[in-house]
């Protein structure tokens, strides 16, 4: 596991998780806009 952690530092994992979370929130927001727009 130490060899794996040397290739990918902890800060990179944290940044990756943040990017994935923000991407999902943005996609969910777009989906919500389309759902609301389709009902009007």
UniProtKB/TrEMBL annotation:
InterPro entries: DUF6126
Chain ranges passing through the membrane: 12-34
Pfam families: DUF6126 (PF19621)
Entry keyword set: Membrane, Transmembrane, Transmembrane helix
Record carries keyword Membrane: yes
The protein, known as: DUF6126 family protein
Native source species: Streptomyces galilaeus
